[in-house]
Amino acid sequence: MAEQAFVTLATNDNYARGAMVLGKSLRNHDTSKKLVALIGPEVSEPCQSVLRRIFDEVLVVDVLDSGDTAHLAMMKRPELGVTLTKLHCWTLTHFSKCVFMDADTMVLSNIDELFDREELSASPDPGWPDCFNSGVFVFRPSEETYAKLLEYCSEHGSFDGGDQGVLNGFFSDWATADISKHLPFIYNLSSVAIYTYLPAFKQFGQNAKVVHFLGKNKPWSYTYDPKSTQISGNVSDAAAHPSFLLDWWKLYSSTVVPALQ
Ligand code: UDP
Ligand code: MN
Predict the structure, then answer these.
(1) Minimal CA–CA distance to 15: which of 34, 42, 35, 36?
(2) Sheet of strand 189-190, all strands in order from the earlier edge strand to the far edge
(3) pTM to 2 decimals?
(4) For residue 218, how far is its CA from the centre of ligand 2 (angstroms)?
(5) How buried is 26 (Cβ within 10 angstroms: 0-12 exposed, 13-18 middle, 19+ buried)?
(6) Chain segment 63-97, per-residue pLDDT in tens
(7) What distance in angstroms lies between residue 8's CA and the mean position of ligand 1's atoms?
């Protein structure tokens, strides 16, 4: 059986820091799968070198330089640069199945069981639950699907300007076709859900397997003092997910910071 992998994406050093924490969190929970990072050409050499120590494969994807259909799609839809880089994960055909995870996610337990699911499995989006959130999804690499996705992208663009719009447009029967493709929300728990439905979070939140720092403020937007183990910065919305944010920073400062030095 061909191998399986977790795949993430980082087009700049900030998201690369997120990818490092994600990779570390997967390793700490003893995943048996390969780890792959797709990166943009802007990621600095020191960050690339740390990524290469955590991930089995680090692939530089330069859509602008590709000269292929992705480049053509890019010419037609220049705003979709990061999205087109993300879609590149479908070309990883040396793997039979993969789980894509945003660089702003972190695992809290082993989630290798996700590989029992089929393409395209994902959790509901907290803002519009008939759409899936594209921060965590199961897919099967395939050149054919990749070509169709690029074609879809060039023709229809993205209704939300990002990859989630493209993917929900393409896998448009997700909401109704097959309940086994609905991942439980605990595989993509976003902080939004904590303040929109606090009693549910209190009831089920301790079962969370993946936390997703969705939205404008990312963990790396805050400052952390390792001595006092306190978060500072614009903590108004950090207050909604203080312990997850602290977990992210503890992992970052204990394992990534020393590697970057
Ligand atoms: N991403 C990236 N560079 C960017 C923006 C996004 O590499 O400038 C990647 C990264 O993996 C990120 C994902 O695309 O996690 C989706 O973006 P983001 O997480 O910011 O969106 P949100 O989950 O907040 O909607
Ligand atoms: Mn995200």
Answers:
(1) 42
(2) 105-107, 210-212, 189-190
(3) 0.96
(4) 9
(5) buried
(6) 877 777 888 888 888 888 898 899 999 999 999 99
(7) 10
Q: Whose CA is nearest to atom 17 of ligand 1?
A: 102
Radius of gyration, alpha carbons of the chain: 18
- Give the single-character DSSP code of 190: E
Residues whose CB is less than 8 angstroms from the CB of residue 11 and which lie 6 or more positions away in sequence, other chains included? 39, 40, 42, 43, 81, 82, 85
Parallel, antiparallel, or unpaired for β 210-212 and 105-107?
antiparallel
Residue 132: name the closest of 173, 92, 102 by CA.
173
**9 CB near ligand 1 (under 6 Å):** yes
Q: Kindly report, residue by residue over 179-197, the tens digit of the pLDDT.
A: 999 999 999 999 888 888 9
First to last CA, the chain: 39
Q: Hunting for tokens 């899936």 — which residue is that?
A: 132
Helical segments of 68-182, H only: 69-76, 81-87, 143-156, 163-170, 174-177
User: Which of 182, 156, 178, 179 lies closest to 167 in space, CA to CA?
Assistant: 156
At 87-127, the pLDDT tens digits run: 999 999 999 999 999 999 999 999 999 999 999 999 999 99
Distance from the alpha carbon of residue 142 to the mean position of ligand 1, in angstroms: 23
Ligand 1 site-directed mutation target among 14, 82, 136, most atoms within 8 Å of CB: 82
CA dist., res. 71 & res. 153, Å (int)? 12
Q: Is 103 touching ligand 1 by the criterion CB < 6 Å?
A: yes
Question: Which pair of structure tokens corresponds to residue 228?
Answer: 């006092």
